[in-house]
Amino acid sequence: MTLIINKIRNKVSNSKTAINYTSASLLKTFAAILAGIIVIKFVKPEEIGLWNSLMIITSYTPFLKFGIMKGLNRELPFLLGAGKRDEAEKYAAAAKWYALALSYISIFLVVLVFVYLYFFKELEKNMVAGILGVGVVISCNFYFEYLAATFRSERAFNRLAKVHFIQFFIILSTIPVVYFHGFYGLVIYNSFVAFSLMGLMHLIRPLRVKSKLSFSLLSGLAKTGIPLFVFSFILGISKTFPKIILLSAGGVLAVGLFAPANAINIGMRSLPGILSQYFYPKMSYSFGKYNDKRRLWAMAWKISGGLFVFGLIVALVSWPLVAYVIKNYFPDYVEGIFPAQMALVSGIFTGSLVSVNSLASIKANKSFLVFSLSKAILFFVLPWVFTRFYDPLTGVALGIVAANLVQFLLGMHLLYFNLYKGANEAI
Predict the structure, then answer these.
(1) What is the 3 state secondary structure string of the chain?
(2) d(Cα 89, Cα 77) in Å, to the nearest integer?
(3) What gap in Å lies between CA 395 and CA 373, rounded to an integer?
(4) Residues 309, 302: Cα–Cα separation, whole Å
(5) 351: pLDDT confidence band, cut at 50, 70 and 90?
(6) 304-340, pLDDT tens digit by residue?
(7) With 0-12 CB in 10 A as exposed, 13-18 as middle and 19+ as buried, what is 7?
(8) What pLDDT, on a 0 to 100 scale, did the predictor assign at position 56?
(9) String of b and e for 376-394 (b: at least 16 CB within 10 Å)?
(10) pTM (2 decimals)?
(11) Which of 250, 258, 274, 270 is nearest to 343 (CA)?
(12) N or C: which end of the chain has fewer CB within 10 A?
């Protein structure tokens, strides 16, 4: 009887943590979206273009991590679940040393570049300030990713939820600097938000280990993490393919008219992304503790099924609202109504991405590679094919829906094969 009561208490506690973390993360996302709207309103387009152009470098800095943080993201909860805390802390100490080294080196180089440009080159002040701001963001992100990988327990996620609540207020209170200082305000806003998030997470970090260099441990993390980084990179660039096809088939105007659909895509992916951060370490922990793939299958289909139903409800409710809002408040984007509604349909199928991460937990790299490459192919081929029969906006929108549907079915098949039917086999 006591065992049953304890299980019920644990489930209730876990549910509260999940709700708290999800709510806090969604609030933070809402504040960031609001900040983005204000930036567009009060910062000149060419200045936003300058900042976004400088920020492109952040897409390439992850290569400097050599997959080490991705490896820690998998190995840390797995080792903790297996009861190997000492080994887990050694890996964390090595990863912390590497993250801090990258942070210190990056900020040192940026300061050198800043001094050189400011005193020896006649560049616009906006350019110089932008370079310094991007440097601060990059430096903070290196250490932030290490810290994010160490939040694994219910207690840790409860603390992280509080950080996100605080970040919600920090973002809201910092937005006015954009109104008063334009581009410089944009640089200050992004730098301060990145630094404050890193600082808050450092204060409540669950693993208080001293950084320690170990080439063997870093090599082990890289061996695990590099495949995961490659898969993540492929999945990331696949999202750009529809935009490239749209630009090629319809030009800059078509890309602009697709903006409401892009915004809805981001919104529909936000909840699965948040839940992925919460459940992925739990899957790795469970596999380390029980070495039972079918436990992961039970988690996977419930999460995917729940997100599918949630996405369906959101799509049905939002379908007429999207048309009403665009017609009445954004009349210049009327041609983008159908793509925006199709983005709601696409969002129904994105929930499977949360569960697919369990393939990383069991190191099913072959299946994860199949999933990643198929997405890259589908998100290029299907939008291109549909634009042969429809106008660019309609064709790309339908192509994205078809690609997401196929990916959802493939993802669930790979999960079923690896975690249930072929639990004791390798694909």
Answers:
(1) CHHHHHHHHHHHHHHHHHHHHHHHHHHHHHHHHHHHHHHHHHCCHHHHHHHHHHHHHHHCHHHHHCCHHHHHHHHHHHHHHCCCHHHHHHHHHHHHHHHHHHHHHHHHHHHHHHHHHHHHCCCCHHHHHHHHHHHHHHHHHHHHHHHHHCCCCHHHHHHHHHHHHHHHHHHHHHCHHHHHHHHHHHHHHHHHHHHHHHHHHHHCCCCCCCCCCCHHHHHHHHHHHHHHHHHHHHHHHHCCHHHHHHHHHHHHHHHHHCHHHHHHHHHHHHHHHHHHHHHHHHHHHHHHHHCCHHHHHHHHHHHHHHHHHHHHHHHHHHHHHHHHHHHHHCHHHHHHHHHHHHHHHHHHHCCHHHHHCHHHHCCCHHHHHHHHHHHHHHHHHHHHHHCCCCCHHHHHHHHHHHHHHHHHHHHHHHHHHHHHHCCCCCC
(2) 11
(3) 22
(4) 11
(5) low
(6) 888 888 889 888 998 999 888 888 877 777 888 898 8
(7) exposed
(8) 65
(9) bebbbebbbebbeeeebbb
(10) 0.71
(11) 258
(12) N
User: Hey, CA dihedral for 167, 169, 175, 177, is it positive or negative?
Assistant: negative
**CA 413/CA 415 separation, integer angstroms:** 5
Mean pLDDT of the chain: 80
Reduce the secondary structure of 376-388 to three states and give it as a string. Answer: HHHHHHHHHHHCC
pLDDT of residue 238 exceeding 80: no
Q: How far is Cα 101 from Cα 357, in angstroms, rounded to an integer?
A: 28
Q: Phi first, then psi: what are they for 60, rounded to 5°?
A: -110, -20
What are the structure tokens assigned to 151, written together? 């939040």
Q: How far apart are CA 91 and CA 106, in angstroms?
A: 23
Q: Burial of 140 by CB count in 10 Å (0-12 exposed, 13-18 middle, 19+ buried)?
A: buried
Q: How far apart are CA 175 and CA 177, in angstroms?
A: 5
Average pLDDT over every residue of 240-263: 77
Q: Which residue has the higher pLDDT, 13 or 390?
A: 390
- pLDDT tens by residue, 130-183: 888 888 888 888 898 888 888 776 777 788 888 888 888 888 888 888 888 878
Q: Tell me what the mean pLDDT of segment 298-307 comes to.
A: 84
What's the longest Cα–Cα distance across the chain? 76
By C-alpha distance, which of 125, 109, 134 is closest to 191?
134
